[in-house]
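Q: My labmate handed me this sequence with no annotations at all. I'd like to see what the chain might look like in three dimensions before we decide whether it's worth expressing. Could you predict it?
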Amino acid sequence: MLKHLTIGNYALIDSLSISFDNGFSAITGETGAGKSILLGALGFVLGDRSDSNIMLDETKKCTVEATFIVDNERFKSFFEDNDLDFEEELILRRELTPTKKTRAFINDTPVTVQQLKELGNQLVDIHSQHDSLLLTNADFQLRIVDDAANNATLLIDYQKVYNSFVTLRNELKNLREMSQKNVAENDYLAFQLDELVKADLQEGEYEDVSQRLELLENAEEVKTLLAQSLSTLSESEYSILNQLNDLKSKVDHLRRYLPQAEQYLERIDSTKIELKDIAQDLDNLQDSTQFDVESLNEIQERYDLIQRLMLKHHVQNYEDLLAIREELHQKVGAFANIDEEIAKKELQLRSCEKELAKLADNLSEKRRKVKVSFEKAVTEIIRQLKMPHGIFEIEIAECSEFSVSGKDRVRFLFSANKGIAPDDMSRVASGGELSRLMLAIKSVAAENAYIPTLIFDEIDTGVSGEVASKLGDIMQKMGESLQIISITHLPQIASKAKNHFFVYKDENNEKTRSCIRQLSHDERVTEIAKMLSNDKITPEAIKAAEVLCRRGE
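A: Here is what I predict for the chain of 553 residues:
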């Protein structure tokens, strides 16, 4: 329940602090005094969209803080899902800075406005006279029935499976579309892969083929260079090796005179050994190097094939061509396994659908189980509200497809006249009837304590007299199950409240400010007397007010 509300620098409110109690509380005040501002501030701290012009003084920060007493079990999942510490005294705070930046907090922990709104929707239901139109909304009607059937936990389980069902169904749809649309494309990919596989491309092959082709294309020059190299090194009369022999002889003769020349002989021998090895290698290379037209043609064909494949696949180097071959392997392989994947998804979908159907049946069973008692309870209340022949019914029909809330379609049916069959509420209920129907429905729903705090913003517009008194009785009874706060202009309703708050304007110092205070018993009698006599307090009005207040206690 809402325990305390503190407002600072919001609209016409400079600074305001107000405490609330459990049960039924009424808020009254003259038109324009600030009752709507109070609700606006509460909506602001609960996560509603903010107006950047709400600040009374634009040089100061606007702050609204609300304190709630909450039940651990009801809000456990929210705090766990959002990694927040739970405390029975819950404090929500929202700020708007002069730079128009908004900040939100839950128990002093910074949160997003969306998180604040998600929690706020579970804490308070603010209902204005215009919200009665929600009764004609199919989703709202189903939500009311689910609240009455205590389906919250079951709905969470159902929706988890439903999300998996939708995901599997979409995946299966995509696989089937891929199977149908990509047959031609896969044939082409398979053709490309077959061409590359038959080419039998090997790692590093392109560089080797290029080098061999260059060698064969320059065969004559290679032969000439090999022959010349051998001649220079060992075969001609003035070859390097012959000259080294002559050099060795001269140095050997020189050492008779210069003993240090001995070291040069060893180095000349080492050089001869190395050059003889080179000559042998060149000779072997000359013997093993064969040049013929057939070899040239084979290498040329291989080179041309690789070049053609690189050009076809728009790549500049051989490694990219190998990568394309691997990519085609994967694509063609994936397509080859698509039938198997489709069969696997179909099996998973059937299993998920079976589980979903079971949960949907459980939801339907609980909805139908509560249907009759809910219809009866609402009908009894609306007949107290000047609709003696009123009938309220709930139509639950099974749909052919699963939805996010099951397989049921819910419609609220209503008839206000004797002998007229109930019909869709959106077609037959007037605005005034919708307001009374909404109150009756929320009154019955309150027995399930579907939300801790329920606020009515002039839901009593258009009613008076005995109907107003009955509305007050209903709110008073609802206050036994949850916290009810009603902004009202009817004395019959205000007199039934456990607590009475008065909103007024303070125009001191040439400034208008909205204020609120809780009325004492005598102040309350005076306020209700003013409401009864259009602000003219007469002895008769005082007596009538005292009677109303005694009846409400």
